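hiii, so i know i said id send this last week but things got crazy w the move. better late than never?? heres the sequnce for the chain we talked about at the cafe, plus the structure i predicted for it. fair warning i was half asleep when i ran it
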Amino acid sequence: MVLLGGAAGEAELTSWASALRNAGIHPRVLNIGGTGYGPSTYYEVWVPARDEDRAREVLGF
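okay and structure toks below
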């Protein structure tokens, strides 16, 4: 598993996870907690190493 990036909040996480799943990539999500700036939550999005390049392409990274 490799860290793809961090989603700042549930809306961004939902968008990323949906796009990855539609591409056949199964992400793992870790809830890291608050960022210290309000009530938002930060999520780490991990993908299998073999899918990293395709996942970055899907999300436009």
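btw The beta strands are 2-8, 28-34, 41-47. thought thatd interest u
miss u guys!!
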